[in-house]
């Protein structure tokens, strides 16, 4: 039996318990991507509410095409660093650790402060419609296929963003390799139709991901926590499956480890969903079977199942999304045996901004 409330070592740091706030985009930064006081209050609330590790929302990495949403935060200049520094300090003062999630939107591009033209592995748009939660675009734009020079710029953006994150005082870096954003697009046979060394075989589709992980590791040095979030599902295609199945996913996990990642964060609709084209394992099962990596697990973890997941995956951190939105003090409530609320999606309407959340909370105050 493993005690989820016990402090534990994770990579080179110590976290006060095994609960992590899952990364959640709130499109509440200034128009130029600078994190603000509203965001500082927001993130501090999760630390005060008991989450041992806070993972930030997806944060853009360059002034080219990495931003995907209006009012998404960035980490590319001194104003961004200083805005994040305030947030990091507030989370630390509350006793928790904080990782930044670095994200390049690629073809999942709804708004960008610097360019109107999305980039992707190929000229392929995401399935379905853009997300109303993050903006009011009606249709996806067709991305331009990235040239080798675009790829180099994007890789370098991740490395510079990682240096900036370290300078802002973050305790570690999570690279967003999940949910249909750029790294995930390179892995995906829906998005990646390239015929060069970045497309085709899984080894080629992995090349960009490996280059990003390696560049981030080189930028921050050896003992700093670096990991990557991985999924098969994308935000508009929750049932996408890698044609290479379980063995393919294992290959991805091993490749990111070998490139310098020290943790992998798996995410799926449900942490135990068996959604490979073959076999009967979950993403978490496969990731746990690879040696030499720490784990963060996500997908439907709540007050009813967290202990089972913790027992099944000793040492893994448990990332909580929707239940955390509904209960920023989720961990404290568990400790106190208090009732846990379900998320009312009205809280995130018409967009997932913190301002809309606050208005909803005021309206629904008992
Ligand atoms: C409003 C909202 C914003 C999200 N933004 C991100 C994000 O920026 N990066 C990311 O990797 N996942 C994002 N997610 C996905 C969550 O991190 C999590 O994977 C998902 O909610 C499933 O976990 P849960 O069942 O605990 O909610 C977001 C989810 C929600 C509800």
TrEMBL record:
<protein>
    <submittedName>
        <fullName>2,4-dienoyl-CoA reductase-like NADH-dependent reductase (Old Yellow Enzyme family)</fullName>
    </submittedName>
</protein>
<dbReference type="InterPro" id="IPR013785">
    <property type="entry name" value="Aldolase_TIM"/>
</dbReference>
<feature type="domain" description="NADH:flavin oxidoreductase/NADH oxidase N-terminal">
    <location>
        <begin position="9"/>
        <end position="339"/>
    </location>
</feature>
<dbReference type="GO" id="GO:0005829">
    <property type="term" value="C:cytosol"/>
</dbReference>
<dbReference type="Pfam" id="PF00724">
    <property type="entry name" value="Oxidored_FMN"/>
</dbReference>
<dbReference type="InterPro" id="IPR001155">
    <property type="entry name" value="OxRdtase_FMN_N"/>
</dbReference>
<dbReference type="GO" id="GO:0010181">
    <property type="term" value="F:FMN binding"/>
</dbReference>
<dbReference type="GO" id="GO:0016491">
    <property type="term" value="F:oxidoreductase activity"/>
</dbReference>
<dbReference type="InterPro" id="IPR045247">
    <property type="entry name" value="Oye-like"/>
</dbReference>
């Amino acid at each position: 039996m493993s005690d989820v409330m016990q402090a534990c070592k994770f990579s080179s740091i110590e976290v006060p318990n095994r609960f992590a706030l899952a990364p959640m985009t709130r499109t509440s930064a200034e128009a130029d991507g600078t994190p603000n006081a509203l965001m500082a209050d927001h993130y501090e609330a999760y630390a005060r509410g008991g989450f041992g590790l806070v993972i930030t929302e997806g944060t853009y990495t360059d002034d080219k095409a990495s931003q995907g949403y209006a009012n998404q935060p960035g980490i590319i200049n001194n104003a961004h660093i200083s805005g994040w520094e305030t947030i990091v300090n507030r989370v630390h003062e509350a006793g928790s650790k904080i990782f930044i999630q670095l994200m390049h939107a690629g073809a999942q591009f709804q708004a960008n402060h610097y360019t109107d033209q999305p980039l992707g592995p190929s000229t392929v748009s995401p399935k379905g419609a853009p997300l109303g939660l993050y903006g009011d675009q009606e249709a996806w734009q067709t991305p331009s296929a990235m040239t080798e020079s675009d790829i180099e710029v994007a890789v370098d953006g991740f490395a510079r963003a990682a240096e900036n994150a370290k300078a802002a005082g973050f305790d570690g870096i999570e690279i967003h390799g999940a949910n249909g954003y750029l790294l995930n697009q390179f892995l995906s046979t829906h998005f990646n139709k390239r015929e060069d060394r970045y497309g085709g075989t899984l080894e080629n589709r992995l090349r960009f991901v490996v280059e990003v992980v390696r560049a981030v590791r080189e930028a921050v040095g050896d003992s700093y926590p670096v990991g990557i979030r991985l999924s098969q599902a994308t935000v508009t295609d929750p049932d996408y499956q890698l044609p290479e199945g379980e063995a393919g996913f294992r290959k991805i996990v091993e490749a990111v480890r070998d490139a310098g990642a020290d943790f992998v964060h798996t995410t799926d609709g449900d942490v135990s969903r068996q959604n490979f084209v073959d076999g009967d394992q979950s993403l978490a099962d496969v990731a746990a079977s690879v040696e030499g990596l720490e784990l963060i697990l996500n997908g439907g973890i709540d007050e009813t199942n967290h202990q089972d997941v913790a027992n099944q995956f000793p040492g893994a951190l448990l990332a909580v999304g929707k239940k955390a939105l509904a209960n920023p003090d989720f961990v404290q409530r568990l400790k106190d045996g208090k009732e846990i609320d379900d998320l009312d999606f009205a809280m995130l309407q018409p967009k997932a901004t913190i301002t809309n959340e606050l208005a909803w909370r005021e309206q629904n105050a008992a």
